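Notes from the 1:1 (GR / supervisor)

We went over the backlog. Supervisor wanted to see one worked example end to end before approving the batch request, so GR pasted a single chain during the call. The sequence is below; no edits were made to it. Supervisor asked that the structure be written out right there so they could see what the output format looks like.
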Amino acid sequence: MFERPRISYAIMVLLFILPQSLYVIGDYMAVGIRFPLFRWQESGFGTSIIPVNREVGYLSGGTIKWMTTAVNSTAQTYNPTAVATVIWVAGLIVLLAAAVMVLSWHLLDNPEHARYPGLLIILTGVLFLAWAMVQYGPFFSGPSGYSIPVGVPILWYCGYQFLQAAKKVEQRQA
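Structure output shown during the call:
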């Protein structure tokens, strides 16, 4: 089923618009839903839609600092929010690469590219899961809040189905 062009295009579009994570910051200072291209956040300041390019701007502009200093200490550590943002952007880039491979596979009729989207989508799921672990802790919960990575199983399932479709394409070629 995933080897059909229209279905694989629709699946890729869904992967970009389905929520990937539900999260709470601190003690309910803010709650939100994280999508691949943006996050929707509700806080005491109102509702915000924060696209990924703005988050990258926060990093490059210094709003989100790369290093933090503990109270009464001179030791510096990496800011988990900065590291998590980089991981999320890496996951988004990998998901975009998977979409390009699906387009190349079908539009250019290049069956060699059939085997890559599944692996890239699974890797995206791993990176989005790593985002939650870096931001909120290894059990998706910590002092900075908690996260429920609802989209990761969907990514893994779709990646697996794309791998199965690639096997069918290879079997037809043989």
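Supervisor's comment: The first strand starts at residue 21 and ends at 25.
Batch request approved.
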